UniProtKB/TrEMBL annotation:
Family (UniProt): Belongs to the COMM domain-containing protein 5 family.
CC terms in the record's Gene Ontology section: nucleus
Protein name, UniProt field: COMM domain-containing protein 5
InterPro entries listed in its UniProt record: COMM, COMMD5
Pfam families assigned to the protein according to its UniProt record, in alphabetical order: COMM_domain
Domain COMM: 119-166
Length: 167
C-alpha cells in the first residue's frame, strides 16, 4: 500500500527539540479530533516563544497530520517506521514519536467526529433556463443541502457528469 506522507524537512526540524516535536504532534492529533481550538493569542505566543513563523508552523502541522494518517493506516510498527525512514524521517525522531500501536484503537475511536453526523440530505436538480442572449449552454446541475446534527446546513452543487460519478 502506498502511503501519502509529507517528506521530512531537515532544515525546518533541525532546530526543534524533542519536547517541541511532541507538543506539535499532540496539537495535530487534537486538531484531527476536532476537539482543540487554539486561541490566536496562545498560538502567537507559542510561535514567538519557539521562534516559528506562520509558514513553518503550517508546514509542521502538515507533516504531523500526515504522519498520524500514516500511523492509522499502518498495521504494524515496523511498517510505520519503514514508511517514515523511506521519507527521510531520522531514527531519533521516530523513536520519540508518542504514538503507540497498543492504543491505536483509542486513537481511532477518539477521532470519530460525532459533530459531523448528517441528519438530512436534500437535493434538487437545477435546470436553468437557457437564453440565446447569453450565447452559451448552461448545463443542468444537482444542488445538495446537508443538514448536520448541530443543525448547520451546507449547500454545494455538482454538474451532471460529476453527479453520475458519485453512484
Amino acid at each position: 500500500m502506498e502511503h501519502k506522507i509529507v517528506n521530512f524537512n531537515q532544515e525546518l526540524c533541525s532546530n526543534i527539540s524533542n519536547k517541541l516535536h511532541k507538543q506539535l504532534l499532540k496539537v495535530a492529533l487534537k486538531s484531527l479530533e476536532n476537539q482543540f481550538d487554539i486561541p490566536s493569542d496562545n498560538l502567537e505566543k507559542f510561535k514567538s516563544d519557539n521562534n516559528i513563523t506562520d509558514e513553518q508552523f503550517c508546514d509542521l502541522m502538515e507533516m504531523y497530520i500526515s504522519l498520524i494518517n500514516v500511523f492509522i493506516r499502518c498495521n504494524k510498527k515496523e511498517e510505520f517506521e519503514e514508511v517514515l525512514v523511506t521519507h527521510g524521517y531520522p531514527s531519533s525522531l521516530i523513536e520519540n514519536i508518542p504514538l503507540k500501536f497498543d492504543n491505536k484503537e483509542a486513537i481511532l475511536s477518539s477521532m470519530k467526529d460525532t459533530k459531523l453526523a448528517i441528519n438530512k440530505l436534500d437535493y434538487k436538480i437545477d435546470i436553468s433556463l437557457q437564453s440565446k442572449i447569453l450565447n452559451k449552454v448552461i448545463l443542468p446541475s444537482v444542488i445538495f443541502t446537508l443538514t448536520y446534527a448541530d443543525n448547520k446546513d451546507v449547500t454545494f452543487s455538482a454538474d451532471s457528469s460529476t453527479f453520475h460519478k458519485l453512484s
